[in-house]
Amino acid sequence: MTNETRPTIADVARRAGVSKGLVSFALNGRAGVAADTRERILSVAAEMGWSPSLRARSLSVGRAFACGLVIGRSPDVIAADPFFPTFIAGVEDEFSVSGQVLVLAAATPGRQEAETYRGLVADRRVDGVILSDLRADDPRIDLVASLGTAAVTLGVPDVTSPFTSVSVDDGAGIRLAVDHLADLGHHDIAHVAGPTDMLHGRHRTAAFTHAAAARGIRARVVHTDFSAADGARATNGLLDAADAPTAIVYSNDNMAIAGLGVAQRRGLDVPGDLSITGFDDVELGRHLYPALTSVSTDARGWGAAAARALLAAIGGAEPEQLMLPDPGLIVRASTGAPRDGHSPARPRRASAPDEAPST
To answer: What pLDDT band is residue 49 in, cutting at 50, 70 and 90?
Structure first.
């Protein structure tokens, strides 16, 4: 419907036979309107297809009714990473019913990224921002705080922060993967990890190292930029070694899928020669052959929780640390006992063996 044909408050008032002020009070849920009159006004508004003008609403309350998500990664990595579309869908689940708009920007970490945040706030394009991919000693915390805008962080920063955080224990999923592989009889497991400057990459690497040590496993770690191409490079390097691992724990499904392709092109049997686990449990992984064992996270739920927390922060809520449920491990066909298995494979449950969560 165009601006010229969209019904206005004046149109609703004429049809309902009341003043514009009374219509405004009724539509905004304010006191001073009799119940039967409010019901009549709302019925007329619905019948006419009236909807609020976001521009007028913004001007009246001094808000943009928009929130920003600046992703500091290469556009190629963002395009290939299924986490962000699912996370954004969760954000939109909340924003679509609250009248908010999501402003999405990709920026190179550093100066360009800082300028992007400054531009969004200075131009009043957003009322708040979601900070993703937290880094060690992340300068964005102080930057966004100095801009005076509301914010929510995905994860708990390692520096003092005035913002609400919404977190998932990444380490819990990695520990499940290591324990699962150890129970199958693996004693030599590698971890294809994310960048060392990202906190969630560090948390997953630390969880892997500690879990491997607790099970007496020989562990090695290769760091990547989280891309499928770098995951393939890391896999080739590990498999080229004379003492190649019998299992690899990947820090995301994108790299695990690439690693599965590398192994199969080399003529390796998965899981007979090499067991593989991923992280995020993307839909594509369920349809591979063999189907991918993966840490299951609720990216959409995380997005919805972050959106709710940001709306609360915009409304003046006190900052808090919100923890979401721990991820689980979905066991499928890409993991099994090594060929020279030192212990028998753990029996699988009779029902839906390829989908059974391991806890």
So the answer is: confident
> Is residue 206 located within the same domain as residue 154?
no
Report how far residue 220's alpha carbon sits from residue 285's, in angstroms, rounded to the nearest whole number: 24
- Phi, psi of 57, deg, nearest 5: -65, -40
Is residue 1 one of the residues assigned to a domain?
A: no
Q: What does the pLDDT look like over 181-198, one tens digit per residue? A: 999 999 999 999 999 999
Asked if the model's pLDDT at residue 1 lies above 60, the reply is: no
DSSP 3-state percent helix, strand, coil across the chain (nearest 5): 45, 15, 40
The pTM (predicted TM-score) of the whole model is 0.77
Same domain, 341 and 245: yes
List, for residues 230-251, the tens digit of each pLDDT value.
Answer: 999 999 999 999 999 999 999 9
Instruction: Answer yes or no: are the C-beta atoms of 299 and 280 closer than 8 Å.
Output: yes
Q: What does the DSSP assignment read for 145-187? A: HHHT-EEEEES--SS---SEEEE--HHHHHHHHHHHHHHTT--
Burial class of 195 by CB neighbour count within 10 A (0 to 12, 13 to 18, 19+) = middle
Tokens linked to 276: 């593989």
In this structure, what CATH number is given to the domain that contains residue 156? 3.40.50.2300
Strand ranges in 197-282 using DSSP code E only, listed in sequence order:
218-223, 247-250, 275-279
What is the SS3 assignment for 56? helix
Query: What is the distance between the alpha carbons of residues 101 and 84, in angstroms, rounded to a whole number?
Result: 17
The residues, ordered by sequence, that sit 6+ positions from 31 with a Cβ below 8 Å of its Cβ are 25
Tokens found for residue 147: 């801009």
- Cα dist. 83→146, 168, 265, 302, 349 in Å? 29, 14, 26, 11, 29
| 206 and 348, same domain (yes or no) | yes
Q: Which two tokens stand for residue 236?
A: 């080739």
State the DSSP H helix or E strand holding residue 67, giving kind and residue range, or none if neither. Answer: strand 66-71
- Would you say residue 57 lies in a domain? no
Helix (H, G, I), strand (E, B) or coil at 135: strand
